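Annex B. Sample input.
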Amino acid sequence: MVSLRSRWFRSPAYQNKIYSRTLMVTQIRKDYRSDAGLLALMGQLKVDGIKIGPEIDCTSIGKSFVKSSL
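Annex B, continued. Sample output.
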């Protein structure tokens, strides 16, 4: 199963899809709740000791509004 999943994630069919490059992050501190703030936060991340900031094409903050049931 691990081999099958690994082949799928490395395949051109997966790599060329928009959802393969999308990440949802929740519970972000208020000072990072903007497109620029999120980009700054993501720029601090490292994968295998390598900063991934230059690899990020764009960020977008989505806000949800909870309707009060009062």
